[in-house]
Amino acid sequence: PGADRGRFVTMESMKLDSLAWIDAIVACWFAYLGASIGSFSNVVASRWPRGESVVHPGSRCPWCFTPIRWYDNVPIVGWLILRGRCRACHWPIPFRYVLVEILFALVFVILYLVDIRYAHPSKPFEFLIEGRWSLLVPFVRDALLISSLLIIALMRVDQLRVPVGFLVCVATMLWGLSISDFLNQPEMRLAERIMS
Questions:
Q1: I need a labelling partner for 179 at 20 to 30 A (CA). Which of 87, 117, 133, 141 fits?
Q2: Rg over CA atoms, the chain
Q3: Are 108 and 37 in contact (CB under 8 A)?
Q4: Does 145 have pLDDT greater than 60?
């Protein structure tokens, strides 16, 4: 009888196992999203203050200006596969790029846990299952704020002037997300909304 106990799986343990797998997959997705935003943030921080386009031309080696192929441009993984060197000239690609991608990945996972996963413990994946996308507004707002501050820090590390257009763009988006978050909380009293 004691040996048979380990063979039986309860519905509760199956639910917890499924929830853990879903939680891990969603956290990995947010980490990849963060690493991708971090990769783009490197581009924004280096090009925007110089008046260059952040869209065209695509990513390129900082030394020989050879375009980076799409499969070499996968955040974190591409840098590791190439061992931190350009495929064309073999010159070292600064560690800062992958460090920023890792930092953004960690920030996005932490924000996912704080703003989504543990903010709604009874229904952690309601935004996925029921399409309640308004639950993502605090995450998007906080991700935009922290990403913007990190981009500004990168610009200042490079001793570049932070463009006013960048600040206006970020302030406008944060204002819009804050208003959206304010309006999407009907269960709160007016005084609580104003205080939040």
A1: 117
A2: 21
A3: yes
A4: yes
Enumerate helices (H) and strands (E) in the chain, giving the number of each. Answer: 7, 0
**Res 77: pLDDT:** 94
Residues 67 and 84: their CA atoms lie apart, in Å, by 15
Model confidence pLDDT, tens digit, residues 107-123? 999 999 988 888 776 66
Q: How far is residue 94's CA from residue 100's CA, in Å, rounded to a whole number? A: 11
Q: Could you tell me the CA-to-CA distances from 19 to 25, 120, 121, 126, 146 in Å, in that order? A: 10, 14, 12, 13, 28
d(CA 87, CA 64): 10
Q: Which two tokens stand for residue 71?
A: 């499969």
Q: What's the rounded Cα separation, in Å, for the pair 107 and 118?
A: 15
Question: Could you count the other beta carbons within 10 Å of the beta carbon of residue 149?
Answer: 11
Q: Assess contact for 166 and 51: CB atoms under 8 A.
A: no
Q: Which residue has the tokens 């605090």?
A: 138
CA dist., res. 187 & res. 150, Å (int)? 33
Tell me the per-residue pLDDT of 6-34, one tens digit each, with 9 for 90 and over: 555 454 555 556 677 888 888 999 999 99
Rounded to 10 degrees, the C-alpha dihedral 47/53/57/62 comes to: -10
Query: What region, left, alpha or beta, does residue 52 occupy, with left being phi > 0 and alpha being psi -120 to 50 degrees?
Result: beta
